[in-house]
Amino acid sequence: MTFGEVEKELPNGFHDAYILSIDLDYVHRSATLQMRLWVGTPDSTDPEKYEPAELKVTGLCFCSIDPPDPDYPFVPDGQPLDACGDPARPDTLPTLDKLLSKLPAGVSSYRFFVEGWNSFVHIAGMEVRLVWIKD
Questions:
Q1: Could you give the number of structural domains in the chain?
Q2: Dihedrals φ, ψ of 119, to 5°?
Q3: In degrees to the nearest 10, what's the CA dihedral of 29, 33, 34, 38?
Q4: Which domain holds residue 110?
Q5: What is the pLDDT of residues 7-22, one digit of tens each?
Q6: What is the value of pTM for the model shown?
Q7: Separation of alpha carbons 68 and 106, rounded Å
Q8: Is 111 exposed, middle or buried (0-12, 13-18, 19+ CB in 10 A)?
């Protein structure tokens, strides 16, 4: 799957998601994002419901974390990162087109805007899957 395909399977995509951790393994070319995803819908009994999940990326090509805006409260405070995701775009990562041209066919790229940093986490990989975590 691609980031976009995973996003389409979620009732709210990666909107108002929380990132608890990012684990990068360059030896095995993988990344795991521990997340809490908003799964509530207006018609559900709990419209604000969140569920824990792992977003697993294999065939990792890159993960780029922009520095935070110094005018924002970016120092970790024990809370997860409030983030929204959407497809990576060259206007927020000017080298994106050049990077993607050097990568194998089928690579999926994505970005997460981190509210508390006013900046992005960019990630690209060959395969993306979502694993729901049972409490």
A1: 1
A2: -155, 180
A3: -150
A4: 3-132
A5: 999 999 999 999 999 9
A6: 0.93
A7: 30
A8: buried
